[in-house]
Design a protein that fits this description.
The protein has 339 residues and is of the alpha+beta class. 37% of the residues lie in helices and 29% in strands. It is built from 9 helices and 14 strands. The chain has helices at residues 10-19, 74-78, 138-158, 161-175, 185-201, 217-224, 226-243, 267-282, 309-325; strands at residues 23-29, 35-46, 52-64, 81-88, 95-100, 111-118, 121-129, 207-214, 249-254, 257-263, 286-288, 291-293, 297-303, 331-333. The strands form 4 sheets. It has a 5-stranded mixed sheet with strand order 9-10-8-13-14, with helices on both faces. The chain has a 4-stranded antiparallel sheet with strand order 5-4-7-6. The protein has a 3-stranded antiparallel sheet with strand order 1-2-3, sandwiched between helices.
Length: 339
């Protein structure tokens, strides 16, 4: 759908796109008939240049006036009060009555009016007496108004559970590899620096980047199919994750590659850990129904100097390439050239 054409709630769509925030629009006429309140959540993707690019809008529609049903505004009329729920339409700039009891609340009498803030939307609830003002003590009126405002806000917010759920799912997708369930490459890079800062605060100065690459993985996909290849990656993830500490970072780097950041270990301990990971993959066959596979992986290890994670990743990748050249199924530690 083109959310940016005239009459399609384009003001809210533009606001969502430009601010990056969840916005609430309406009520307005829907293309499919009737009226509705519409939540719009902008979605962005990463570009090769490292910038966020607008991709589209997640839209959830709440039927109107059904969305106000459980607010029980009609109870106000039984209490001798008239009401009017209104807003300024962002499309026309004019007052738009969302719901009322009829007769124009407050048109010819004193009234109480309170703003109702829901996300970006600002509605106003105006209440006045149908009978003479002295028929109701002012404090009772204020209590009733406050309660109904609370009910109104609570109900509309509850009706946005779908929007909040969609937002949470999108956030998880942005950080998690959908196949293995661990962090993806982008999330790893976001967490790596904070993990380094934590290590420095705790005096854990020795930190290492480890890149793991499953050996001859393409032949597995070509021979047994991508479904078996996916199962191999999931099994590799489970075995490696079981061997590392909870606070060590572990992510899928891309394809059949994984990446780790381990801290508070010297060189000997880092090599021992990586060797244990290598054997965890190589010493036990990968069993899938009647299929039994021997899987190995190569490891590139590099120490992080002066908190420079990018350089450490480059060094680790060079060490991994050397491990591949030397026959695979081995771990290689990057050595700095002597000055």
């Amino acid at each position: 759908m083109d959310f940016f054409s005239h009459g399609a709630g384009n003001i809210e769509a533009i606001t969502a796109r430009d601010t990056g925030m969840l916005v609430l629009g309406g009520p307005f006429d829907l293309i499919q008939g009737g009226q509705g309140l519409v939540g719009r959540l902008p979605l962005y993707i990463d570009t090769p240049g490292g910038n966020n690019q607008f991709w589209g809008i997640v839209s959830v529609t709440l039927k109107f006036p059904d969305a106000l049903h459980n607010a029980h505004l009609e109870t106000l009329t039984r209490q001798g009060l008239s009401y009017e729920l209104w807003r300024i339409s962002p499309d026309t700039g004019e007052k738009q009555v969302i719901a009322d009891s009829g007769g124009g609340a407050g048109a010819n009498s004193r009234f109480i009016e309170k703003p109702v803030h829901i996300l970006n939307a600002e509605w106003f609830l105006r209440i006045s007496n149908i009978r003479a003002w002295h028929s109701f003590p002012s404090n009772i009126v204020l209590i009733i108004v406050s309660l109904f405002i609370c009910f109104l806000v609570f109900f509309v917010v509850q009706n946005n559970i779908q929007l909040r759920k969609a937002r949470a799912e999108l956030a998880a997708l942005a950080e998690t590899d959908p196949l293995t369930g661990i962090s993806n490459r982008r999330h790893f890079m976001e967490l790596a620096q904070s993990s380094m800062n934590r290590a420095w605060r705790l005096g854990e100065e020795d930190c290492y980047i480890v890149i793991i690459d499953a050996d001859k993985f393409k032949s597995i996909n070509d021979t047994y199919g991508h479904s078996i290849g996916d199962k191999v990656l999931v099994e590799i993830t489970g075995r490696l994750k079981a061997q590392i500490r909870p606070y060590d970072l572990f992510a899928r780097y891309g394809g059949e590659e994984f990446i780790m950041l381990i801290s508070d270990v010297d060189e000997s301990a880092a090599i021992n850990l990586v060797e244990r990971l290598r054997l965890e993959l190589f010493d036990r066959k990968f069993e899938f129904s009647d299929l039994s596979l021997n899987i190995s992986a190569s490891f590139g290890v590099a120490k992080i100097y002066d908190g420079d994670i990018e350089t450490a990743i480059k060094h680790s990748d060079e060490a991994l390439y050397k491990a591949k050249e030397e026959g695979r199924n081995k771990a290689v530690l990057y050595k700095m050239a002597a000055v």
